[in-house]
Amino acid sequence: MHPLELTAESLQDALDLTTRFVREEVDSLEGQPSADVAGAEELARTFVERVPESGQSLDRILERLRPAIRKSFNTAGPGYLAFIPGGGIMSAALADFIAASTNRYVGVRPPAPALAQIETTAIAWLASIMGYPKTAGGILTSGGSLSTLSAIVAARETRLPDDFSRGVIYMSEETHYCVPKAARIAGFRDGQVRRVAIDARRRIDPDALVRAIEADLGQGLRPFMIIANVGTTNTGAIDDIPRLLSIGRQHSMWVHADAAYGGFFRLADSGPGLMPEIEACDSITLDPHKGMFLPYGTGCLLVRDPEALKRAHSMDAEYLHDVRAQEEPNFSDLSPELSRDFRGLRIWLPLALHGLGAFKDAIEEKLELTRWAWEQLREDTRFEIVDEPQLSVIAFRLKGEGPAADRLNEELQRKVNARGRVFLSSTRLDGRYVIRLCVLSFRTHQDRVRDAVQALRAEADGLLAQRPA
Ligand SMILES: Cc1ncc(COP(=O)(O)O)c(C=O)c1O
Fold this sequence. Notes:
Layout: H1 8-27, H2 40-45, H3 58-70, H4 90-102, H5 113-129, E1 137-141, H6 144-159, E2 167-172, H7 178-185, E3 193-196, H8 206-218, E4 222-229, H9 241-250, E5 254-259, H10 271-274, E6 283-286, H11 288-291, E7 299-303, H12 306-313, H13 345-354, H14 356-379, E8 383-385, E9 393-398, H15 402-418, E10 425-429, E11 432-438, H16 446-466
Parallel strand pairs: 2-3, 2-4, 4-5, 5-6
Antiparallel strand pairs: 1-7, 6-7, 8-9, 9-11, 10-11
Helix pairs in contact: 1-3, 4-13, 6-7, 6-12, 14-16, 15-16
The chain binds pyridoxal-5'-phosphate (PLP).
């Protein structure tokens, strides 16, 4: 047997060991601290090492890996309420294991048409969740940032095929930084990106957008793309999509919805009403590693017109003659990637196994938990809440102005996180320190959200008692 091939027996042993290891990690998530990075950098240095000439046992390797996993923000655990969680469902991990073990090629369709179809079907399922017509298409990416890059390139190639040097992209002050970053990578200069003012609910101000477009037209520039936020990272704000579509249509602009965080809330009963007309946007970024609770590395770009993606990404090469596809789509024609993992299985298998209903219930629960936490915090007059949650983020702070109040809030966040039950992150809004609580992990339930509220109240008691009168 080749040394890189495992015998049936040693493969079974390795699987048993790995399964036990994974079960120990997953079964203990509930009791693990919500974050533990004390000494993590010292540990990280133990992995600065030479490539080993000969191998060692899987047992020993897993034992080294365990503390590396534990010394981290516990992004898989129920207490992770920071940034944008997701959790990582085990059925998706099983899909990855099957995909990597069987290692078939789906970058182009002919080498494995049925597998490529599974991925195409997974994309069609996501498109139907968003209300897109059957003629829509898309591509699975590694995440929202790469989806956004392909959306910008598709919009650029469609609206400004010959010269984009005067093209301008519009987005709000609250738009995720991956959008201006993608614009830069796509060849746009800073002066071709407009950050438009927001209203009191932190949504783009459509009148300010119209003024910006008109001013640019007056300068001989070419407004060609609008980004609609469907769940901002800071507060979960959703822009007025119908109004943005109408402005976009007036100027033949491409309207892209950044629904990386918010998109899967369309599964909730209230979902379609939260993001009306998203199905009319030219393209939509979705992050299944957020609202579908899949492991990191699962993003999606949906487009109403798949030809636009093809126009931006397809190219031919003689050495690919043998695998030139008769049937569409061919994933490498729709994205910058050629070789890549079979990521479609990571979406298709969990949906086939659990059914869409399980995901609907989970997303509904996140909305209910957020509402509950918001009501609790709202009753406590010491807290100021930035806005009624539009999705599952609550942004809040202890009342007060100036640097001392900012420090107090920073200390509150630190103390709550130090308890190890929940992990919250923070942001700055209008120059003020604001704590964020985002309920999105499929493992987060009522008990943990109650812990978060109780910890905030108890630590606020302590901090305010210490404060000089
Ligand atoms: C609203 C929004 N858009 C885009 C992104 C970028 O997505 P990714 O981290 O998958 O690249 C994020 C990430 O949190 C986000 O919240």
